[in-house]
Design goal:
This protein is an alpha+beta fold. The model has no long low-confidence stretch (mean pLDDT 93). The chain contains three helices and four strands, in the order βαββαβα. The longest helix has 13 residues. Strands 2-3-1-4 form a four-stranded antiparallel β-sheet, with helices on one face.
Length: 99
């Protein structure tokens, strides 16, 4: 399994509209092989959401596209931005640096 993180940020004045859209289930669903394992919200000047997903390694590209497709549906709201990031275990990063 590969871990992917999405970082979402939006201003508080659109939070109610985003919640309504989220609950309406009008955004595309994640592909069935993408499993969201964690979700954290940090209210700050902006609302920030961090999601962690597990995706089978052989479906990484399709999984990241599916996550981006879903999150992109929310960009209709002013100030909503997101980023999808492929994560690596610290021990794997160390191995790469030693090669």
């Amino acid at each position: 399994m590969v871990h992917v993180m999405s970082k979402v940020k939006y201003p508080p004045h659109v939070a109610e509209d985003i919640l309504k859209f989220y609950l309406s289930r009008k955004a595309p669903e994640y592909p069935d092989f993408v499993k969201r394992t964690h979700q954290w919200v940090t209210p700050d000047y902006n609302i920030k959401i961090y999601n962690i997903y597990e995706i089978p390694e052989d479906k990484l590209y399709e999984g990241m596209k599916g996550i981006a497709k879903r999150l992109n549906a929310f960009t209709r709201f002013e100030g909503y931005v997101y980023k999808v990031i492929n994560l690596m275990e610290g021990s794997e990063a160390i191995k790469l640096m030693q090669e």
